[in-house]
TrEMBL record:
MF-aspect GO terms: ATP binding; protein serine/threonine kinase activity
Pfam families in alphabetical order: Alpha_kinase
Name of the protein described by the UniProt record: Alpha-type protein kinase domain-containing protein
Lineage: superkingdom: Eukaryota
Organism of origin: Candolleomyces eurysporus
GO biological process: myosin II filament disassembly; response to differentiation-inducing factor 1
Residue ranges annotated for the Alpha-type protein kinase domain, each copy included: 1-205
InterPro entries with a match to the protein in the record: a-kinase_dom, Alpha-type_PK, Kinase-like_dom_sf
Keywords attached to this entry: ATP-binding, Kinase, Nucleotide-binding, Serine/threonine-protein kinase, Transferase
Amino acid sequence: MHFWSGRYQEKHYAIFLGKPTRTTNNENREDLISELILLSYGHYFLSSFKTRAKLANVKAVPNIRWNYEGAFLGRVQEFDPNDRKDSSLYHDTFLAVPYITIPKGAERKFSGTNSAGKNNQADDNIGRWMDAYAHHVLEDSDGYLVITDLQGVVYASGEVVLFDPQGHTSLKDSGYWDKGQEGMNEWMREHKCNRVCKQLKLTPQVPVIDPPPAERP
């Protein structure tokens, strides 16, 4: 994925496109749609995660958000690939997300693309909450989705801004990175419930939905 800096309605944005040597116009469009949908899932389930913590009377929830508000897909009008070889917008579709600054040493990965987070060190409060959030997504989606490759910026203020998620779904329909039930089962084998999971009364084992044959890719 390539990105550039741009402005829209007087706001600073990061503009993303697939690499020109690896994606066609149609592949780029489908990938960016999948990216935005998964970003919206992350945002939605983070909201329900915070609601869950409130209902469980669990205090001191970290200030976490997805870099989602204001994100959009854009299309280049009158696109001609032959005229855009030297242009930064070499595909007809782009993903724009609010530009965020990343101070040196502030970027952090909480889990891998194909692995659960293991952030249970005694002094890693944010890491424990992120692992519990991933568990919550799996449970709150009724076994449909697990969000992986959790990463973001941890600012000195304590705010955490998440971006660029990947995931696995029971229908294997979230994007080219999606390994379906295999990826979800691998995550469940690796995840170890921490004290936040227990405080939120998350189910230790969430069954993965096995889709009917007609719905399988």
